[in-house]
Amino acid sequence: MSTNEYDVVIVGAGVSGALIAKQLGLAGKKVLMLESGAGLPANNNDFMQRFYLAQAKVPEVPYTPDLFDPPGSNTLTDPQTQNAARATVLTLDKGSWQDKSKSYMMQQGPLAFGSTYERVAGGTMRHWLGTSLRFVPNDFTTASSYGQMVDWPITYADLEPWYGKAEVEIGVSANKAEQSYLGITFAPDYDYPMPAIPPSLVDDAVAAAVQGMEVDNIALQVVGTPAGRNSQPHHSRPVCAGNTNCIPICPIGAKYDPSITLNAALDTGNVELWPFTVAKQVLVDANNQVSGIEYLQYQTPTGPQTGSGTVTAARYVIAAHAIETPRLLLMSTNGGRFPNGVANRSGMVGKNLMDHPLYLAWALAPKPLYGFRGPLATSGIESLRDGPFRKQRAAFRIEIGNEGWNFSSNDPYTTTIDLINGMNLAGLNPATSPGPAPALWGAPLVNALNNALSRQFRLGFLVEQTPDPANCVTLSPELDHLGLPRPQIRYDLSDYTKAGLLAASETASAIFQRMGAQEYTSSPDPDDPCAFTVDAKHGSKLMKFYGSGHIVGTYRMGSKDDGQSVVDKYQRSWDHPNLFLVGSGVFPTVATGNPTLTIAALALQAATTLLSDLQTS
Amino acid sequence: MTTPQENMDLFVGLSALLTGIDKTKLSPPLDPNNIKQVFYDYANAQDSAALAQLLGIYASCLAQPGITDAMVAKAVFEDSGDTMCYLARAIMLAWYLGSWYAPGDLQAYHANYAAQPPLQALPPLSGPVIAAAAYTQGWAWNIAQAHPMGYSTFTFGYWGKQPPALSAFTGARQ
Asked: Smallest Cβ distance to B158: which of A242, A245, A441?
């Protein structure tokens, strides 16, 4: 089957695809979206049920295809049997990260890539935290400002108007004055759509402790985090009720997710969404124009292929995130005419894979802070996102967690089992006298658990990772159920990034000390695939990082067609003028903020470029 | 021969004693979720003889004049064998976390821990979530003066204020 009734074909129905589709649809352009996974459900009830009944409530668990086979069990589905498999953080342990029957991504090391993504309508942003930070101006100029990494082909000033539009589209709650730090500016007549989300008691305690504290001669300050969640009823969605579940899913829809934009796109009447449709190849004609997208279709996650064809349009957008987009481009050899894949004259497709390696530190406060309440994070320390230290080591932001030791220790599960079953895995049920850890019951159990959980808190440090062409996505000889190569990942951390992680650990300990909090951050298993050593003052230090879910950099933008980038500053392929590659893959650096707002801003900019293209062609 | 109602009364009474949560909270007069029945049925389906034995031990304790909570706990955890000890812990964990950690798994987990004391040496213990409502009514989060993650009954901005007292959650047995 071949169709050519569309102005634009978009591969991927995540936030970038949805934002572009909505803008094009509103302008009367005919758009087809190809989504490799399921389409939009009528409501989130199935997602919520899957979450409630899951033993491991990891980010991916509410979504499809089901992580477990049979559903509700603890046995991971074999990705080899799935038509649109995806990774899960449950395969990051030393026993399964390189097991092809468990891990969809074929991890080559030396370290594990710790982030995952979704293949479902709404995309990975289904389980985003809601953090809607703008990057700081120097994030775009690290080479010229600090002699590190690369500059972006655009500046903060170029992106500023698009940030505002993205904040309106998402519905961001924040205070403009509070967000005016490290050179971030706003248009005079602009304000955020909603007032800021109030801070938590955990935020207040950290804020009080860091008053007067300096790191690298920079004063630390806690500020509210701009959030894509409602502080007021907004666009027919309710105000946040503090379900403490932004990741993996907000049960009431107070947090924005791309299904909102996707529904608006479909409501224009000009946008069509084909679920269960996997793009197989980007076709290129003799004039170097993209001439179609070949696809495969299926009806059930592990069932047979049920259809195939080619769709054509005037313009093409690949919006499949920073691992599936390069995978598709690399698969598109066009019968050998493009042995390295399309849009890849530079050889940079798949290169410079990045994340924010996250350093996690946890402690017990001297008095109750009452975590496990409110959005997962409401404030952070942004002071160390920029400064002269960036000449020597990676910058980071500090996220203050509101979920106790849920992230770090799987609490309340671990401590509850410790107290009832006479164990001490989380560290809060030590033996009070020589002998085993006590097993409690009755009022002493309640009081011990309350004392533990109400005082737990954690800090997360999102460290800027340097781009390195050796960190890359390539094609694995291993195939998925449709016979397509699975993504193969090579990943490591540079000394510059590790130095940032070390500074993060030292900063964490200093903050805990000022709070009078007892630190419980544990030393990792040396065989953990996310463990590494770094040179510290007193010898080598063993540390561990976590993925932040910020998958970035595999088809980066550049200022000129010099073989160092894949797209121009408008996210148009250098090689194929009617092909746009959008999403965080275009980021030349991962920068110091969570990527979503920048992804959205760039998507809105790309939509305008596409519209202009279509109107003049 | 005890009636279903007597069995349930024993089940709730023993659960309240062991969990430290008041009977009126575990079995409120208006009880749309009826979690006690869900837990009872689940435990009964796993090993009805063991559950009957456990409730029988509790019933025998209640028949003793001057019995204290500590004496009941000793009878359950120390005097009646591992099967009773770990079944009681499994029931407590069901109330707290909404999941069923099988008594045998708990016993093996504890034995592994005792043999391998360093922190975080063991992977998390797995156990199926008994029912969606078992999770959303889980007591561990209430004892944190919070709510099960993904099931808030509070309103906007509550996280910036002190929570209600612990006794308001658990029924003031502490």
From this structure: A242
What pLDDT was estimated at residue A2?
46
Q: Does B173 touch chain A (CB under 8 A)?
A: yes
When CB atoms are compared, the residue of B97, B149, B170 closest to A244 is: B149
Per-block average pLDDT, block size 10, for chain A (617 residues)? 77 98 98 98 95 94 93 89 95 94 97 98 97 98 98 98 98 98 97 98 98 98 98 96 98 97 98 98 97 98 97 98 98 98 98 98 98 98 98 98 97 98 95 88 98 98 98 98 98 98 98 98 95 92 97 98 98 98 98 98 98 91
Q: What is the pLDDT of residue A37?
A: 98
- B40 Cβ partners below 8 Å, 6+ apart? B7, B8, B11, B51
Q: In angstroms, rounded to a whole number, what is the distance separating the alpha carbons of residues A234 and A246?
A: 17
Q: B73-120, pLDDT tens digit by residue?
A: 999 999 999 999 999 999 999 999 999 999 999 999 998 888 855 544
pLDDT, residue A537, reads 86
Residue A72's pLDDT is 80
Which of A93, A360, A413 is the best residue to mutate to test the B interface, defined by the most B CB atoms within 10 Å of its own CB?
A413
What distance in Å separates the CA atoms of residue A268 and residue A30, rounded to the nearest whole number? 10
The predicted pLDDT at position A1 comes to 42
Q: Where in chain A is the domain with CATH 3.50.50.60?
A: 6-84+116-129+257-354+484-491+550-616
Strand partners, A317: A10, A580
Would you say residue B174 has pLDDT above 50? Answer: no
Q: Which amino acid is at A345?
A: R
Q: How far is A508 from chain B (nearest CA, A)?
A: 21
Whole-number Cα distances in Å, A528 to A96, A561, B22, B122: 11, 40, 43, 13
User: Which amino acid belongs to residue A239?
Assistant: V
Q: What's the gap between Cα A96 and its chain centre?
A: 22
Compute CA distances A502 → A210, A215, A392, A533, A535, whole Å.
19, 13, 12, 10, 9
- Beta-carbon contacts of A404 under 8 Å, excluding residues fewer than 6 positions away, are A371, A372, A411, A412, A453, A456, A457, A458, B144
Q: How many other C-beta atoms lie within 10 A of the C-beta of residue A478?
A: 14
Tell whether the model's pLDDT for residue B8 goes beyond 50: yes
Contact A243 B151 (CB under 8 A): yes
pLDDT of residue A538: 84
Q: What is the spatial distance between Cα A169 and Cα A172, in angstroms, rounded to a whole number?
A: 8
Residue A420 to residue B124, Cβ atoms within 8 A = no
The two three-digit tokens of residue A419, written as one number: 């107290």
What tokens were used for A249?
Answer: 């899913």
Task: Report yes or no: A507 and A107 within 8 Å, Cβ to Cβ.
Answer: no
Substitution target from B15, B91, B143, B162 for chain A, most A beta carbons within 10 A = B143
Ramachandran assignment for A53, one of left (phi > 0), alpha (psi -120 to 50 degrees), beta (any other): alpha
> Least CB-CB distance to B166: which of A53, A439, A450?
A450
Q: Using an 8 Å CB-CB cutoff, list chain A residues near B128.
A: 55, 72-73
Radius of gyration of chain B (CA): 17
Q: For residue A93, what are its two tokens?
A: 């342990």
Interface ipTM > 0.95: yes
Please answer yes or no on whether A251 and B173 come within 8 Å at the CB atom.
no
Tokens representing A210 are: 């860091």
Residue A4, pLDDT score: 59
| Residue whose pair of structure tokens reads 């975080």 in the numeric block | B120
Rounded-to-integer distance, Cα A599 and Cα A20, Å:
11
Fold (topology level) of A6-84+116-129+257-354+484-491+550-616: FAD/NAD(P)-binding domain (3.50.50)
Residue A176 is which amino acid?
A: K
CA–CA separation, A591 vs A500, rounded Å? 13
Does the pTM exceed 0.95? yes
